[in-house]
């Protein structure tokens, strides 16, 4: 009987065996073979999931790096190596989609930069201005002070104030105008 040369596929180790060798011995040759056999399939899979060619290349690299780092968590009794690796790839693609939808925070964004604290003299002026304003409000007639509080401190619209106080809208507006005029004069006289 003539000798039949063994098939090349019969000489190849299974993906499971390669991944176990990587996990157990940190076998670089096994990882290299695993990479060359599965990376092209991963890239195609990631492109079918919507990644562009460049992003698919990048994600494939990230997946294979994770395979190297986390090979010890592979359990051949639970799934095959290809299933485990493609699950890692799917999760990486989901993470990439989330990053695209929720971009990283730009620390230079003006909305995120805290306000510069006021200088000491400005802080003292502010406290003094607040005290003067409170004193001026106390000098107002009670109905004007009440309407002023509702409009400016509780931020209620004039129509809502008129309704809750049972006053015509025009009366609310004229009393607020009178109150603001008195406050302005009081604050100007106090300087």
UniProtKB/TrEMBL annotation:
Pfam families xrefs: Sigma70_r2, Sigma70_r4_2
The entry's keywords: DNA-binding, Sigma factor, Transcription, Transcription regulation
Keyword Oxidoreductase: no
Keyword Transcription: yes
Limits of the RNA polymerase sigma factor 70 region 4 type domain: 132-183
Superkingdom of the source species: Bacteria
Domain RNA polymerase sigma-70 region per the UniProt entry, residue ranges: 34-102
PANTHER family the UniProt entry points to: RNA POLYMERASE ECF-TYPE SIGMA FACTO (PTHR43133), RNA POLYMERASE SIGMA FACTOR SIGZ (PTHR43133:SF62)
Protein family: Belongs to the sigma-70 factor family. ECF subfamily.
Protein name: RNA polymerase sigma factor
Organism of derivation: Skermanella cutis
């Amino acid at each position: 009987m003539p000798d039949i040369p063994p098939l090349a596929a019969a000489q190849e180790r299974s993906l499971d065996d390669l991944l176990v060798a990587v996990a157990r011995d940190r076998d670089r040759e096994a990882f290299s073979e695993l990479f060359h056999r599965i990376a092209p399939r991963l890239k195609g899979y990631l492109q079918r999931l919507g990644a562009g060619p460049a992003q698919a290349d990048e994600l494939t690299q990230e997946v294979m790096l994770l395979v190297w780092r986390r090979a010890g968590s592979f359990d051949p009794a639970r799934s095959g190596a290809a299933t485990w690796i493609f699950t890692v790839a799917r999760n990486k693609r989901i993470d990439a989609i989330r990053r695209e939808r929720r971009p990283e925070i730009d620390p230079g964004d003006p909305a995120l930069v805290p306000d510069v604290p006021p200088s000491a003299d400005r802080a003292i002026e502010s406290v003094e201005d607040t005290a003067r304003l409170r004193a001026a409000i106390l000098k107002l007639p009670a109905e004007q002070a009440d309407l002023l509080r509702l409009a400016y401190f509780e931020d209620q619209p004039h129509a809502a104030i008129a309704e809750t106080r049972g006053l015509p809208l025009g009366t609310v507006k004229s009393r607020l105008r009178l109150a603001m005029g008195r406050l302005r004069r009081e604050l100007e006289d106090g300087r």
